[in-house]
Design a protein that fits this description.
Layout: H1 2-14, H2 30-44, E1 49-54, H3 65-75, H4 83-98, H5 107-117, H6 126-129, H7 135-155, E2 159-164
Parallel strand pairs: 1-2
Length: 168
């Protein structure tokens, strides 16, 4: 725990990302360690952006499940949200990160691509329609937009992306 906190403070102090891999035998307490780490950060760092998700054996073949979990957790989406409510929550979450910052990409485009990647449907989206015949290009575009989304999030304060049980 002390080492994780030390690495976190080093990354924040240097304003540079760090990749930390916690590995060990099953049942060793890795998930518990990560839970304690995030609990401590949430107490000590009120401006922390914590993005977290956990893989499950039953979702190992679901495309982009971790990203779905990350963004749905971040924007407060529930599995039983009606489609319109899910779209509204997702759009508001993205717009909050785009607020006051201009750029070549609109919040709506990001919402449609990243939402579409994570199960939030956007029927008749002009952004997605343009890519209907190029699925590979659509996924590449979505990945680029996720990168931009993460950059905007990181600009708002210290950010931790925690992905647990990656073996699944």
């Amino acid at each position: 725990l002390a080492r994780l906190i030390e690495l976190y403070h080093k990354a924040v102090g240097n304003q540079s990302p760090k990749l930390v891999l916690v590995r060990g035998e099953s049942g060793l307490g890795k998930s518990r360690l990560l839970m304690e780490f995030t609990s401590q950060l949430e107490i000590d760092e009120p401006t922390l952006n914590l993005l977290s998700a956990r893989s499950l054996a039953e979702t190992s073949r679901v495309p982009f499940f971790l990203w779905k979990s990350v963004w749905h957790n971040r924007f407060g989406l529930k599995d039983n949200d009606p489609p319109e409510a899910a779209r509204t929550k997702f759009l508001r979450g993205i717009q909050a990160l785009w607020e006051g910052q201009s750029g070549p990409v609109s919040a709506t485009e990001v919402t449609h691509f990243v939402g579409g990647l994570t199960g939030v449907e956007w029927p008749d989206s002009p952004y997605l329609t343009a890519w209907q015949t190029d699925v590979e290009g659509q996924v590449k575009r979505a990945f680029e937009l996720v990168r931009q989304l993460l950059c905007r999030l990181c600009a708002t304060g210290p950010t931790v992306l925690l992905l647990d049980d990656l073996q699944w």
